[in-house]
Amino acid sequence: MPMNIVVLIKQIIDIDQMKTDPKSGEPLTQNIPMRIENLSKNSIEAAVQLKEKNGGKVTGIIFGTDKSNAAMKEAFAMGVDEGFIITGYSGNNPTYTASVLGRKIRELGSVDCVIMGNQSADSYTGLLPGLLSAALSMPLLGNAVSVSLEGEKIKIKRVLDEKDEIVSAQKPCIVSVTQEINQPRLPPVLQIMAAGRKPINTGQAEKGDFEMPKVLSNLAPKSDRKREIYEDMDKGIAEISKIIRGEMK
Amino acid sequence: MKFLVFSEDGNGATGLVTKLRESGEVDSITLGGEESKCINYGSKTVTVLKGRAMGDNSLKAIQAMNPESYDKIFISSSPLGRDIAGMIAATLKSLVITEVFDFTLENEIIRTKRFFYGGKTILEEESRAKVITTQPGAFEAKKVDSSSPLNFVELEESKISLEEEVEKDRSGTDIESASILISVGRGIGKKEALDQVKPLVEAVHGELSGSRPVCLDYKWLSEERQVGLSGKKVKPKVYIALGISGQIQHIAGMRGSKIVIAVNKDKEAPIFQECDYGIVGDLFQVVPKLVSSLK
Ligand SMILES: Cc1cc2nc3c(=O)[nH]c(=O)nc-3n(C[C@H](O)[C@H](O)[C@H](O)COP(=O)(O)OP(=O)(O)OC[C@H]3O[C@@H](n4cnc5c(N)ncnc54)[C@H](O)[C@@H]3O)c2cc1C
Question: How far apart are CA A247 and CA B239, in angstroms?
Fold first, then answer.
């Protein structure tokens, strides 16, 4: 049965390229390119695979900034059919983020499944799936390493600390995915070019009455390790076994 | 002040309740079967959710406990914990601060610390957040003499049905409580090489842990032994990193260790910036020599 799938796409600065100032510890974020967060790519891939199997449509939503067009075009190239960018993202209050995204999803009307990453690589918040599940009254199928549609139900395999479970729920559902779910595709050039011509819907987020935390500092942690490095193995071993024996007492 | 604490596995509540009991009264919630782990830490009550806990039915049970009446709700981070934290935050329309590893309270103002930019920075914030998720193992647990009275609550049926359960190969170890950890990385090359590391683990009465590729991708060790941003946060007395390059996501899990020792054949490996003592060399030569020198 054709599915109406929404995928939530997060854009972050490329944290692998980001460095911190060796003296002050300040993050050096200027001139660092933006990228689609890895788990968002897994989410797009999962959504597109569901569409390829069952038919239907994938709608991408980015709560981002006026710099989010490139990310949406990349999502189009991977197979997303329609895209909405909501500008005004600030990132510090997941409850606010969820309220903006929840409103947009409700506007879209009948949705079978909302797919997103389980924890994003920059902040590791991991709250959005639960927030949206409660806000939209859709059951949450969390931490999926596989997802499929079975009649009126959505079924996932989820990974927990102590066991794996196969669980299902009546759609519509929220599905959060982990990086193990798939290998996101690299779109062919023709698709990338076609994606560039596709229109993107853009709108501004409504400001709500939400508290933003006050940032006191955001610095690289100080490391006051001794850094006594031995290239002479035997000397190093003698020293280190002394240290270990001392701690074992 | 009044606090509500949720911990899926019971362990996450121990340190958290220890820290919170100084500032007020704590009611804890855990899942059936885990209650024995957290009854001796000074909670006024421990509520035990019985039945198959999923996000939706756990939320209902917690809502019945009147979460609005608490000053703050602390949730130990875990897959179910994070799902529930989001749901509670949505119903209370409250700010949430997540994955907190340190905090101080001043009435309703909370000062929190958490990692940002994938572990490259520490973000210190001040807010009136009502819901906070915390990293398991972040706070020291101290028992009290008394045990908390238990409340048993039967969970309603969830909208999510269980079709199949796959038990994991689990050794039941708790690397967070080991005082010496021998942690192996991709540098050990293959699973069989663990046999060459084990004599060191025995010599120091330690436990084995590993980096993410070792635990998750290659499965040379079980997932519960993974140290790092997406694994366990450990702070042993001695952390010995063998063949671990020291990427930031790994460091985020072992930064609290008292002494860090690293063995790596690459002089430029970032782990040497994050260790107290390091040997540049082949771990397969260093480990046996270290074992005999310890005897
Ligand atoms: C969102 C996210 C979350 C992550 N979470 C975690 C996490 O929780 N934990 C984690 O560990 N990683 C995590 N990672 C992965 C992390 O970025 C690194 O990829 C990983 O830590 C590297 O593991 P490693 O050091 O074992 O392997 P490598 O980086 O491959 O390092 C292997 C090292 O072994 C050395 N070596 C090789 N042979 C020998 C020998 N014979 N003797 C001595 N040294 C030798 C090499 O010089 C090299 O330095 C995460 C990544 C992301 C994006």
Answer: 11
Q: Is the Cβ–Cβ distance between B77 and B253 less than 8 Å?
A: no
Residue B163 counted as domain residue: no
Residue B64: name the closest of B29, B24, B26 by CA: B29
Structural domain containing residue A194: 3-204
In a domain, B278, yes or no: yes
CB B63, CB B92: distance < 8 Å:
no
Q: Is B7 strand, coil or helix?
A: strand
Q: What is the pLDDT of residue B171?
A: 64
Residues B97 and B180 in one domain: no
Q: Is the CB of residue B212 below 6 angstroms from any atom belonging to ligand 1? A: yes
Domain that holds residue B70: 2-154
Are B110 and B238 within one domain?
Answer: no
Most ligand 1 atoms within 8 A of CB, residue of B200, B233, B264, B284 to mutate = B264
- Please state the domain count of chain B: 2
- Single pTM value for the model: 0.85
Q: Are residues B31 and B142 in the same domain?
A: yes
Model confidence pLDDT, tens digit, residues A13-54: 898 888 899 899 999 999 999 999 999 999 999 999 999 999
ipTM, interface predicted TM-score of the complex: 0.89
Q: How far is the CA of B246 from the centre of ligand 1 (A)?
A: 6
B129 contacts in chain A (CB < 8 Å)? 211, 213
H/E stretch holding B240 reads strand B238-242
Pick from A123, A165, A212: CB nearest B116: A123
B170 shares contact with chain A (CB less than 8 Å): yes
Q: Which amino acid is at A8?
A: L
Closest CA to A103 of A124, A125, A86, A121: A86
Q: For the beta carbon of residue B4, count every other beta carbon within 10 angstroms.
A: 23
Tokens 């949720």 sit on residue: B6
* Statement: residue B54 has pLDDT above 90: yes
Q: Which residue of B has its CA nearest to A227?
A: B276
B277-295 pLDDT, tens digit each: 999 999 999 999 999 999 8
Cα radius of gyration rounded to whole Å, chain A: 22
What does the pLDDT look like over A162-214, one tens digit per residue? 788 999 999 999 999 998 899 999 998 888 889 989 999 999 998 888 889 99
A72-104 per-position pLDDT tens digit: 999 999 999 999 999 998 777 899 999 999 999
d(CA A18, CA B203): 40
